[in-house]
Design a protein that fits this description.
Blueprint: H1 2-25, E1 31-35, H2 39-48, H3 60-79, E2 87-94, E3 99-106, E4 112-121, H4 130-137, H5 147-163, E5 170-179, E6 184-192, E7 198-204, H6 211-215, H7 228-239, E8 244-250, E9 260-269, E10 273-282, E11 286-295, E12 304-312, E13 315-325, E14 332-344, E15 348-362, E16 367-382, E17 385-402, E18 412-422, E19 432-444, E20 449-461, E21 504-517, E22 520-532, E23 540-551, E24 554-563, E25 572-577
Parallel strand pairs: 1-3, 4-6, 7-9
Antiparallel strand pairs: 2-3, 5-6, 8-9, 10-11, 11-12, 12-13, 13-14, 14-15, 15-16, 16-17, 17-18, 18-19, 19-20, 20-21, 21-22, 22-23, 23-24, 24-25
Helix pairs in contact: 2-3, 4-5
Length: 581
């Protein structure tokens, strides 16, 4: 006990000594006190007052000189805010270790604009947005003079005109006449826009992609009026293409003789080949492993080759995709997709081989349209059926995602809509038409609480469901379906009680989660759903609580769900990884 107490005292003394040494080494700052100023005035005064940055270690002669010059500094700081009639009292006090400077300031009444005369002219000036820019920032008669706002007003006009190609725009008169005696100011601002420049030739770094493909990334045409928005769009398109490590765009030097701005695009190629490996886990599928390979530039026409391998307890799949841009590489792509999948669950077992053609087109920033045709051969076992199926499936779909992040999303949505079908007149064993819709919305109720709503719907037009392979049927239950129930355990059953899947699907879920600390939150949820045929749905529901950890690689969810329609089970554990949307 004696030794422990001695060690504790020694550590305490060392800590005090270290704290004293650090404090002694750090510079101490003297106090500069203001009376009579509001927050904005005091902030500006401290910024423009060199005395504010002096310390107790500053030489006395320098402190006294800065204190003497503080009158002019304070007047300049307050005049910038429109106060020209200030009254000032000050006092400098020295102590044994430091000093104190006190300023008592009476700002007086502010100067206000009396005349505001703004004129913008130019032979070629045609800009529908400029009046809004001027109106939004222009001082008005009767407003308090603020030199900072005045400078920002001038800069906003020049920046807007520069963005529109008026590179020679200049103020032929820029004057603020202040009369402190009458507390008034007159503003005179006359601008000549000069000519509007036009786009010159667009040049790209060669040797990476063909010039035809690169030109397709922009709508800029030589001779068109300059617009910085098109430069930004070109940068975003190239930077998001995945082909380049870096993108840089210059529009100088300007050609003053022809009034054109050349567009010089400097590109550095990204890695041509990329390999990836990943792992995951969910209660439904168990441990998961992923391998990936992509060649982003197989040739100068931008063709790409990708191969993916996925393996888990329930699914093993290999997929190869060859894709290339069509017409507009920013929005329009085509792909040939081939692959094989083995699937084994408690409900069914299947082996599927696919080869298809996919065409995707971006309709807007947030919507993607897809058309596809896919030939598949599937061997499957479900219930008492041991069959094979050949289908040629035609499909169209829409997809949208907003707010998808690897960390905790605060708001967003994800929507998938798809129609697909096959006909026995077009090389298929049977005919069907199917519609699928999946949606998820996420809202923040406050800084710590979110609400998530999820829904899934599917319907199939087909007289005999048993003629369709497993991949076309609907099942419910599991981690991302109705929690509290086993994976794909909900659906119509045969005479032996084996789940055979349904032609219809309805699911809904609501969840609330609340941050408790750092990257941890707790959740409460309720799920319900049914896979069924043409009869009335028999909904199964589950409720539960969960824990969320927003890890560096994405959210980890641990849910304890109680199945309300299964009295023999208390709860089921669900563990999933992946983004919220």
């Amino acid at each position: 006990m004696h030794t422990t107490a001695k060690l504790t005292r020694n550590r305490y003394a060392i800590a005090l000594y270290a704290a004293w040494a650090i404090a002694w080494c750090l510079p101490s700052y003297a106090e500069v006190a203001f009376t009579g100023l509001d927050e904005t005035q005091e902030t500006n005064a401290r910024i423009l007052l060199p005395l504010s940055s002096a310390t107790c270690e500053t030489n006395q002669w320098r402190v006294e000189r800065l204190f003497r010059d503080a009158d002019d500094d304070l007047r300049e700081a307050l005049q910038a805010l429109g106060f020209y009639r200030i009254e000032l009292e000050k006092n400098l006090t020295w102590t044994e270790d430091c000093w104190l400077a006190e300023f008592t300031v009476t700002p007086g009444e502010p100067v206000r604009y009396r005349i505001v005369d703004v004129r913008i002219g130019g032979v070629e000036l045609v800009d529908a947005d400029l009046p809004q820019v001027v109106k939004r920032n222009q001082p008005v008669a009767g407003a308090i003079l603020n030199h900072g706002d005045y400078e920002r007003f001038k800069s906003a006009i020049l920046q807007h005109l520069s963005n529109q190609g008026y590179f020679e725009a200049m103020f032929v008169r820029k004057e603020v006449v202040v009369e402190p005696e009458t507390l008034s100011a007159d503003l005179f601002l006359y601008l000549e826009s000069g000519p509007r420049y036009r786009f010159g030739e667009v040049n790209f770094t060669g040797g990476i992609l063909s010039s035809e493909l690169l030109q397709a990334y922009t709508d800029i045409e030589q001779g068109e009026p300059y617009d910085s928005v098109q430069i930004s769009e070109l940068y975003e398109s190239l930077n998001g293409s995945g082909y380049f490590k870096s993108v840089s765009i210059r529009t100088d030097p300007l050609d003053e003789s022809t009034k054109t701005a050349p567009v010089m695009v400097s590109l550095k190629p990204g890695a041509r080949r990329n390999y990836s490996i990943g792992a995951g886990f969910s209660t439904d599928t168990g441990p998961q492993g992923r391998l990936g390979y992509i060649n982003r530039r197989r040739n100068d026409r931008g063709h790409q080759l990708e191969a993916r391998l996925f393996a888990s307890k329930t699914d093993s799949e290999i997929t190869t995709v060859y894709r290339w841009p069509i017409l507009n590489p920013r929005t329009d792509w085509a792909s040939i997709v081939g692959g094989a999948q083995h699937r084994s669950t408690d409900t069914s077992e299947s082996d599927t081989f696919k080869l298809g053609y996919l065409r995707t087109k971006s309709l807007s920033k947030n919507w993607l349209w897809a058309r596809s045709v896919e030939a598949s051969h599937e061997n499957y076992i479900i219930g008492e059926q041991d069959e094979s199926s050949n289908l040629v499936i035609f499909g169209v779909g829409l997809e949208s995602a907003i707010g998808r992040e690897i960390s905790r999303s605060t708001s967003g949505r994800r929507i998938n809509l798809a129609i697909r079908g096959a006909s026995d007149y077009l090389a298929s064993d049977t005919s069907f038409l199917q519609f699928r819709a999946t949606a998820k919305w996420l809202w923040s109720l406050n800084d710590t609480t979110r609400m998530m709503v999820r829904g899934r719907f599917g319907t199939t037009i087909k007289d005999e469901l048993n003629e369709l392979p497993v991949s076309v049927r609907f099942f419910a239950g599991g981690d991302r379906s109705v929690r509290g129930y086993d994976f794909e355990s909900l659906g119509p059953v045969d005479s032996n009680g084996d789940v055979t899947g349904g032609s219809q699907l309805l699911e809904a879920s609501i969840e609330f989660d609340r941050v408790i600390t750092g990257n941890w939150s707790v959740a409460a949820f309720a799920d319900t759903g049914s896979a069924f045929n043409n009869e009335q749905p028999d909904f199964s529901s589950g409720i539960g609580l969960g824990i969320r950890w927003y890890s560096p690689v994405g959210p980890v969810r641990i849910d304890f769900a109680h199945p309300l329609d299964d009295p023999d089970r208390d709860f089921r554990l669900h563990i999933t990884l992946g983004p919220d949307l």
